[in-house]
C-alpha cells in the first residue's frame, strides 16, 4: 500500500478528473487523501478517498468567486484570466502549502500529486525536496520550443511567417507576464521556497511526472513534449449515484436527433451561449437539451423554444449516448467526454482556457471554433448545420475517441503514479 495525497483546486471541472484517479488508486488498495474544498466532501468520500479540507487556504464557492476574490467582480476576458491566475491560483498557494505541511506532520504520505493550478502542492514538494507529480486536467499549457505560448487559442505555425509569429510570442512571454511573475516571487517567498526565474508555465508542472488529460490529436501533434509527460485520455469514472431523470427524458429516444447545449459550470450567464443557441436551433429539426450548470436550476429567466428541454445538471454517462452534436463553451472535461464518444462539437470558447480548447478541437477536425464566447444565433446555426452536414467532423471526432481510449484513462494515470512511487 502506498499513501497518496492528491491536491486539487475546488472547481468541479478540476475535482472530477482527479477523483477519477483517486478512485482508481483506492481500488488498487492504496491509501488516498484529497486536499480540496469542503463543498466536495461527499464526492471525495464517494471515491473512497478521505477529504483534507482547505483550512488556512481560503475555501470558496466556485459559483461566486467574487465573494472571496473581490477583484474578479465585473471582470471578463483577459482581465478575468489575469486576476484568476494571480488571486485564485498564485496568492492562495502559500496557505495551501501550510495546510499541506500540517497534514503531512499529522500523517505523512509517500507521493503528492496536484493539478496544475495547485501551486501549494508544488511549493510544498519543492521546499521539502520530495518527488511530486502533476495531474494536468486542463489543456496542456507546458512551455516548449514549438508553437505559440499556451492559452492564446492559436494553433502552431505551419509556414515561415506563422512560425516566426510563434517565436516572437514565446520571447514576449517574460515581458508580458510581469504581474504574474511578481505574484509568483511573492508567493514563493511567503511559502519558504527558493526563488526561481522560471515562469508559471514551468513552475506548475512536475519535472518527475505529469499525467495529462487529452491526447496528441488534441495537442497539435507537438513533438517537443518532455519524457516525463504522459497523455492518459479522458479522466472519468462510471457514475454510481442514482439518476432521477427529468419527466421529458423519454423524448431523447424519439425520432429527432438531439443537440446538447452546455455553458459549463463557470461564467454561466445564459445570455452568453444558451440564449443564442436556443434561438439558433428553434426552427431546426432537432431536440435541444440545455443545461444551466447548477444542480437544481432547471429553468431559465426567459422563455425557451418548444424544441428545448432544460435541466440544471445531467450526468454525461447517461446523456452523451443520446447526443448527436454538442454546442459547448469549451470546458475541457465536457469536451473530452463528448469526443470520447465520437460526438462532433461547436465550441464557443470565450475566456480562461476555453479559447485554447476551441482551437485544439478545430485543429483536430472534430468541430468548429466560433472564436467567441458570445456568438450570435446566426453563428451558432451556421456552425451546427455545417457540423451535422459534413461527415468529416464526425470522422475526426471518432479518430480522437480512438486515441483517447487507447491512452488508458484513470487507470493509466494511476499506473504512472504507482511507477513514480
TrEMBL record:
Record-level Gene Ontology MF annotations: hexosyltransferase activity; UDP-glycosyltransferase activity
Keyword Transferase on entry: yes
Entries under Pfam families matching the protein: EryCIII-like_C
CDD domains linked: GT1_Gtf-like
Keywords assigned: Transferase
Domain Erythromycin biosynthesis protein CIII-like C-terminal: 303-405
Any one of the GO BP annotations: antibiotic biosynthetic process
Alphabetized InterPro entries for the sequence: EryCIII-like_C, Glycosyltransferase_28, UDP_glucos_trans
Name listed for the protein in its UniProt record: UDP:flavonoid glycosyltransferase YjiC (YdhE family)
Record carries keyword Transferase: yes
Amino acid at each position: 500500500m502506498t499513501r497518496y495525497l492528491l491536491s486539487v483546486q475546488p472547481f468541479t471541472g478540476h475535482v472530477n478528473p482527479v477523483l477519477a484517479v483517486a478512485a482508481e488508486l483506492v481500488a488498487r488498495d492504496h491509501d488516498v487523501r484529497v486536499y480540496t474544498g469542503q463543498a466536495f466532501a461527499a464526492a471525495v468520500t464517494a471515491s473512497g478517498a478521505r477529504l483534507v479540507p482547505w483550512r488556512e487556504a481560503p475555501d470558496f464557492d466556485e459559483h461566486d468567486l467574487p465573494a472571496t476574490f473581490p477583484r474578479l467582480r465585473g471582470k471578463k476576458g483577459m482581465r478575468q484570466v489575469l486576476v484568476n491566475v494571480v488571486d485564485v491560483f498564485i496568492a492562495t498557494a502559500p496557505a495551501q502549502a501550510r495546510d499541506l505541511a500540517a497534514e503531512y506532520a499529522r500523517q505523512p504520505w509517500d507521493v503528492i500529486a496536484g493539478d496544475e493550478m495547485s501551486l501549494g502542492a508544488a511549493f510544498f514538494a519543492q521546499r521539502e525536496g520530495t518527488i511530486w507529480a502533476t495531474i494536468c486536467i486542463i489543456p496542456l499549457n507546458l512551455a516548449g520550443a514549438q508553437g505559440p505560448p499556451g492559452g492564446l487559442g492559436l494553433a502552431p505555425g505551419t509556414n515561415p511567417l506563422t512560425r516566426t509569429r510563434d517565436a516572437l510570442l514565446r520571447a514576449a512571454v517574460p515581458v508580458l507576464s510581469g504581474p504574474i511573475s511578481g505574484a509568483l516571487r511573492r508567493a514563493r517567498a511567503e511559502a519558504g521556497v527558493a526563488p526561481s526565474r522560471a515562469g508559471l508555465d514551468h513552475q506548475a508542472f512536475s519535472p518527475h511526472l505529469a499525467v495529462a488529460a487529452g491526447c496528441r490529436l488534441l495537442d497539435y501533434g507537438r513533438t517537443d513534449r518532455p519524457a516525463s509527460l504522459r497523455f492518459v485520455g479522458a479522466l472519468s469514472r462510471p457514475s454510481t449515484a442514482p439518476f432521477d431523470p427529468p419527466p421529458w427524458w423519454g423524448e431523447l429516444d424519439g425520432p429527432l436527433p438531439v443537440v446538447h447545449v452546455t455553458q459549463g459550470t463557470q461564467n454561466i450567464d445564459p445570455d452568453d451561449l444558451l440564449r443564442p443557441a436556443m434561438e439558433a436551433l428553434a426552427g431546426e429539426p432537432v431536440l435541444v437539451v440545455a443545461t444551466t450548470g447548477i444542480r437544481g436550476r432547471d429553468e431559465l429567466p426567459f422563455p425557451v423554444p418548444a424544441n428545448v428541454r432544460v435541466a440544471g445538471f445531467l450526468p454525461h454517462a447517461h446523456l452523451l449516448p443520446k447526443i448527436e452534436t454538442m454546442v459547448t463553451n469549451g470546458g475541457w472535461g465536457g469536451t473530452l467526454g463528448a469526443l470520447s464518444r465520437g460526438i462532433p462539437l461547436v465550441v464557443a470558447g470565450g475566456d480562461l482556457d476555453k479559447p485554447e480548447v476551441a482551437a485544439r478541437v478545430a485543429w483536430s477536425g472534430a468541430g468548429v471554433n466560433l472564436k467567441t464566447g458570445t456568438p450570435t444565433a446566426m453563428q451558432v446555426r451556421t456552425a451546427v448545420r455545417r457540423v451535422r452536414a459534413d461527415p468529416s467532423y464526425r470522422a475526426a471526432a471518432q479518430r480522437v475517441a480512438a486515441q483517447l481510449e487507447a491512452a488508458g484513462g484513470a487507470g493509466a494515470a494511476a499506473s504512472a503514479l504507482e511507477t513514480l512511487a
